[in-house]
C-alpha cells in the first residue's frame, strides 16, 4: 500500500515537472517522456563508464561525497556537543533580541496586514506624482525667489540713484539760494 502511494506521489511529481518543462504543448507527440530521456542518459553514462575503473569507482562514491558535502555532517564532525552549546550561549543575547523582535512582529501582525499597509503598493504611483508635483513647485518657488531678489536689487539700485540725485539737486538748490541771497544783499 505504501509502495503504491509513494509511486503515485512520484508519478505526480514527474507529471508536474513535465508540465513545468514542456508547458501545455503536446509532449507525447513533440517531446520524449522525461523518464525515457533520463533512462537513456543513465544508460549512456553507464556504458561510457563501463571500461573506466577510476570513473566507475568515482561514480559509485558519489553518495559518500554527497554525505561529506552535507552541512549537517560537516558541522557534526567539526563541533562537539560542548562547542555547539558554547556557540549557542555566545549568541544568546542576539537570539534573545531576535526573539523579542519576532514577538513584536507577531503582536503587530494585525497592523502589518491591515488594508492601509496592503494598499501601499497601489498608492506608490500617486505618491510619485505628488512628489514630482512638489519638486516642480519647489523649482518654481526657487525661480520666483530669484526673480524677486533680482527685482528688489534693481528697485534698491534705482531708489539709491534717485536719493543721490535728490541730494545733489538739494545741494545745488541750496547753493543757488545762497547766491541769490548774497546778490540781493549786495544790491
TrEMBL record:
Q: Give the domain of life.
A: Eukaryota
Can you name a GO cellular component term? Answer: dynactin complex
Which Pfam families does UniProt cross-reference here?
A: Dynactin_p22
Its Gene Ontology biological processes? cytoskeleton-dependent cytokinesis
Under what name is this protein listed? Dynactin subunit 3-like isoform X2
Amino acid at each position: 500500500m505504501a509502495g503504491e502511494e509513494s509511486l503515485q506521489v512520484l508519478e505526480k511529481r514527474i507529471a508536474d515537472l513535465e508540465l513545468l518543462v514542456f508547458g501545455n504543448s503536446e509532449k507525447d507527440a513533440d517531446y520524449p517522456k522525461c523518464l525515457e530521456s533520463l533512462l537513456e542518459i543513465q544508460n549512456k553514462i553507464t556504458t561510457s563508464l563501463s571500461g573506466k575503473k577510476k570513473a566507475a569507482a568515482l561514480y559509485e562514491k558519489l553518495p559518500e561525497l554527497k554525505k561529506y558535502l552535507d552541512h549537517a555532517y560537516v558541522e557534526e564532525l567539526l563541533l562537539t556537543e560542548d562547542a555547539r552549546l558554547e556557540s549557542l550561549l555566545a549568541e544568546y543575547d542576539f537570539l534573545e533580541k531576535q526573539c523579542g523582535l519576532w514577538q513584536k512582529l507577531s503582536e503587530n501582525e494585525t497592523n502589518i496586514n491591515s488594508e492601509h499597509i496592503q494598499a501601499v503598493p497601489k498608492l506608490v504611483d500617486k505618491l510619485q506624482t505628488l512628489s514630482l508635483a512638489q519638486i516642480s513647485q519647489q523649482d518654481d518657488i526657487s525661480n520666483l525667489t530669484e526673480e524677486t531678489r533680482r527685482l528688489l536689487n534693481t528697485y534698491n539700485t534705482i531708489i539709491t540713484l534717485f536719493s543721490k540725485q535728490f541730494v545733489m539737486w538739494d545741494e545745488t538748490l541750496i547753493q543757488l539760494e545762497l547766491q541769490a541771497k548774497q546778490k540781493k544783499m549786495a544790491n
